[in-house]
Amino acid sequence: MAATERSDENLRLRTTLAGIAPGTPLRAGLERILRGRTGGLLVLGSDRTIDAISTGGFTLDVPFSDTMLRELAKMDGAIILDKDASRILRAAVHLMPDPSIPSEETGTRHRTADRVARQTGYPVISVSRSMQTIAAYVGETRYVLEDSGQILARANQALATLERYKMRLDEVSSTLSALEIEDLVTVRDVASVAQRLEMVARIASEIEGYVLELGNDGRLLSLQLDELVTGVDLERELVIRDYQPAGRKARLTEDVLADLEALSPTDLVDVAAIARALELGPSEHLDAAITPRGYRLLARVPRLPGTVVDRLVEHFGSLQKLLSAGIDDLQTVDGVGELRARSVREGLSRLAESSILERYV
């Protein structure tokens, strides 16, 4: 499966999990089916392909309710809902997907759900009477829902890990700022910060999946996550923009981020692999000096528009030239008047002082 297809399927899976999370009407209906021990098969969507593989049953087209879903599940056959699970379209439907579609499922209901999901592209939900489980089939993916307590336990463990990684990220980020001001940055320093940023982003993405699956039960977890990762995405972009190699056609920031996201867990702990993904040079050049453009520090100057930041970086070319620029020099940049020039000068001076103090005191 291509990377784009995997990304699309992952997005559809996350959307489906959000729609059947605790607190949603559909999840309430599924829980009723579980308690009733009847089992069920639901298709979330309808079109000509669904019609072509459906026989029997009867048309309803009525508003969704969890109690009605429970009663309809008592009958044999599948229940067809619309994409939003806001209406029950048909019930007691016999589904006949293409038997040549490969499936590793053994039970009749699960095998049908797997093949229908692969053939139609619509999410299919199977409720097992014997196993007392709910499984969502999206494309080629089968995802078994777990009890909220188990998910919450894993989520809290991941959150504790995220807190530790975020503390380490703050440390290496502060060190990089001090080194930038002193013009002592090496490729290793930049790669270490990019590495920690990617680690934090991956753990945060995992927790976001838990939040989706927990629904109402994940509200507190969501608030804690937002507090920990606020600013991380921006920091990732600024590091890339600060250290993109000059003298060649610059890659888009999104492309560099995609290369970092594509690194395996093994490569992620290798600073040299991070440096290669950033195109900062081979592993033997990790201790080579490198100069920032100034995006990271300028982003910390209060009330400084992004367009002005771009003009300042384009005009001066490096952070060291920005730090040595006087108010008159700054005013030569389009859009920088005397007040803004003073604000930039004072803001950079304060940042320089605080970064040096944090490092050496």
UniProtKB/TrEMBL annotation:
Its cofactor is Mg(2+). It is an enzyme of class 2 (transferase). It comes from the Bacteria. GO terms for biological process: DNA repair. ATP binds at residues 77, 95, 108-112. PROSITE patterns: DAC. InterPro entries: DisA, DisA_sf, DNA_integrity_DisA_N_sf, DNA_integrity_scan_DisA_link, DNA_integrity_scan_DisA_N, DNA_integrity_scanning_protein, RuvA_2-like. GO terms for molecular function: adenylate cyclase activity; ATP binding; diadenylate cyclase activity; DNA binding. Keywords: ATP-binding, DNA damage, DNA repair, DNA-binding, Magnesium, Nucleotide-binding, Nucleotidyltransferase, Transferase. Pfam families: DAC (PF02457), DisA-linker (PF10635). Residues 10-148 form the DAC domain. Its EC number is 2.7.7.85. It catalyses: 2 ATP = 3',3'-c-di-AMP + 2 diphosphate. Transmembrane segments: none annotated. Belongs to the DisA family. NCBIfam families: PRK13482.1. Participates in a DNA-damage check-point. DisA forms globular foci that rapidly scan along the chromosomes searching for lesions. Has also diadenylate cyclase activity, catalyzing the condensation of 2 ATP molecules into cyclic di-AMP (c-di-AMP). c-di-AMP likely acts as a signaling molecule that may couple DNA integrity with a cellular process. Homooctamer. Interacts with RadA. This is DNA integrity scanning protein DisA. It comes from uncultured Nocardioidaceae bacterium.
